[in-house]
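User: My instructor asked us to take a sequence, write out its structure as tokens, and then describe one feature of it. I'm not sure where to start. Here is the sequence I was given:
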Amino acid sequence: MATFQEKYINPFTDFGFKKLFGSEFNKDLLIDFLNQTLGGREHIQDLTYLNSESQGKSESDRKAVFDLYCENERGEKFIIEVQNVLQFYFKDRSLFYATFPIQEQAIRGRDWNYALKAIYTIGILNFSFPDSRGDQRYRREVRLMDVETHEVFYDKLTFIYLEMPNFQKKEEELETQFDKWLFLLKNLPKFQERPVKLQERIFERVFQEAEIAKLNSEDMRAYDESLKIYRDNYSIMETRKLEMEQARQEGLEKGLQEGRQEGRQEGRQEGLEEGKQKGRIEIARTMKQAGLPLEQIASLTGLSQDQIHQL
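Assistant: Let's start with the prediction itself. The structure tokens for your sequence are:
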């Protein structure tokens, strides 16, 4: 059962997110959130909710089930997804899902010049991507790029990921409407009263819709079930973090011990460096056995994905 110490629903649950953004009545909330997320580059006047389940060309093809799937007044498509746990091949999944609204635009039975409307994937993530530069970005925008000139090669396929753990701003640090949206989504279940900086009408609507006390019995049951799934996922995520840290510590200690031993025996710096490398390999092997994605292991250990694949 949901705890009534919490006044407002958790927007990272399936029920909570769709309660706030998934109905015609609350369409203005989604429009404002998307406009802010797009950074003012795209101004959405209106949205139409589309079927959240997309089938391939035949019944045997795999299908995509979106959290929310919308179209603006220019026919541009928006996939909005909430993800609580980093999955294997998450990036592949994002790209695969984006192919459905692309294929839907094909005009069959007559000539077609391949002109496409833009596709936007908005991912609200309760985790962070491994970042080789160590950046703590909370908004990551990805498009097809020319790797030599760094110019955008194709601007009609955009992936925007909001990495919520990296958003650390406090209320007094909020500057933009986008800041306020992220602050609200990250902290909504913790609020007992509306923060001073969230007094605008659009946020008043969010708080009204999010009150647990206003849920009817059917919605309460649905929210409880959704909250249970969220908590199970959270437990999995925390377990992975602990396993990863344990693997890192064990591998590092083993590598340092071997390095010190070889360094003493040989009296050379090379022994210590070789031991450290063995430690990185041991860390990578343990993380791989724990089921962590190769790109994440590579980012944390400094090994290449090819090296990790061969372990």
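For the description part of your assignment, you could build on this observation: The two ends are 44 Å apart (CA to CA). Try explaining in your own words what that tells you about the chain.
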